[in-house]
Amino acid sequence: MGFLAEMIICPVFWIMIMPMELWGPREPAKPDDPDANWQDTVTYAFIIVAGCMDHSLPLICLSIDFSYSCIPVLWRHFAITATVIAIYAVFNMCWTLLVKEIYPLMDWDSTVGAIIP
User: Which of 23, 34, 45, 101 has its CA 20 to 30 A from that of 51?
Assistant: First the structure.
């Protein structure tokens, strides 16, 4: 179930979300700029490293585990995965509409923002 979820999450993150994080409206502060706030640069670097670790390392580890474990994939596994994804979508929608957005693409206010998830 986790391997299937990571096979969906990883490409969506790298194709749609990470480019917005890297080239979005916010420009990182330059380290050699005397007026720059060094905490902004460290925070931006942390976001990039954390995004890489959260959305590539699990897929690599699960791919290795899946290749060695020889666990059969059954159709009933899809039902469990679909249920977890549906629960997360409802949580994401409620959190985004009531508190703040988690990902910039999933704003749930526009048609495109509701179709993407």
Answer: 34
Q: How far apart are CA 55 and CA 13, in angstroms?
A: 7
Question: pTM for the complete prediction?
Answer: 0.54
- Between CA 38 and CA 83 the distance in angstroms is 43
Q: Which residues contact 35 (CB under 8 A, 6 or more apart)?
A: none
Q: Which residue, among 72, 102, 76, 79, has the nearest Cα to 90 in the 3D structure?
A: 102
Residue whose tokens read 């986790």: 2
**How far is Cα 21 from Cα 31, in angstroms, rounded to an integer?**
19
* 89: region left, alpha or beta (phi > 0 left; psi from -120 to 50 alpha): alpha
